[in-house]
Write a structure and sequence with these properties.
This protein is α/β, with parallel strands linked by helices and 203 residues long. The chain folds into three domains: 1-92 and 191-203, no CATH class; 97-147, Arc Repressor Mutant (Orthogonal Bundle), CATH 1.10.1220; 150-187, no CATH class. It contains six helices and eight strands. Strands 1-2 form a two-stranded parallel sheet. A two-stranded antiparallel sheet has the order 3-4.
């Protein structure tokens, strides 16, 4: 191991792995990536149904929130990944981008480069969407995204009931927000295999 480094990144979670990958693409740089957890080679991490078993302290920090006043002072379980890939290694494999208005609001707060139109090319470049291409989605990127292979009939009942309550169906990750500022329901795309950021960045 080198005695000195140009960059030391603390935390090999989603952001840390991507940052380490991009920096280390320059062969002139020495990059050290530190992670408190272990490797992400458990078969439970690579298997969709493994999510129910990824709540153990070897891969999960098992955080609890502070008491929430609007929840009668209950604490909420707040799982965060403690392994290479961080929370991307223990997530539910649902692919959802942030709301367009949120990115634009960050830009308006004085953060140039964070508007939706500015970050969209990076979303597209990172994505390999099996079924959708075009203005919003991309193909050929390291993050594979696909449609569900099976939809539980109750999911459709839920979406229909929400529509009756003025929360219309919407296509997830679309450009134009639906009526009501983006409030609605959708059956999101997913990843058939739980890919952590270590898979998509080669970390």
């Amino acid at each position: 191991m080198a005695a000195t480094f140009d960059y030391i990144i603390v935390g090999a979670g989603s952001a840390g792995c991507v940052l380490a990958n991009r920096l280390s693409a320059d062969p002139a740089l020495k990059v050290l990536l530190l992670e408190a957890g272990g490797r992400d080679d458990s078969f439970l991490i690579g298997m969709p149904a493994g999510i129910g078993r990824l709540i153990t302290p070897d891969v999960n920090w098992l955080y609890q929130t502070e008491p929430q006043a609007l929840l009668r002072d209950r604490r909420m379980f707040w799982p965060r990944g403690k392994t290479l890939g961080g929370s991307s290694s223990i997530n539910a494999m649902v692919h959802i981008r942030g709301q367009r208005q949120d990115y634009d609001h960050w830009r308006e707060l004085g953060n140039p480069g964070w508007g939706f139109e500015e970050v969209l090319p990076y979303f597209r470049r990172s994505e390999n969407n099996e079924t959708i291409d075009g203005e919003l989605h991309g193909r050929g990127g390291p993050l594979n995204v696909c449609e569900r292979r099976y939809t539980n009939p109750l999911s459709r009942v839920f979406v229909d009931a929400a529509a009756a309550a003025n929360a219309p169906p919407m296509r997830i990750n679309r450009v134009v927000p639906c009526a009501g500022g983006g409030n609605g329901t959708s059956m999101a795309g997913k990843r058939l295999r739980r890919l952590s950021r270590t898979d998509t960045t080669g970390t």
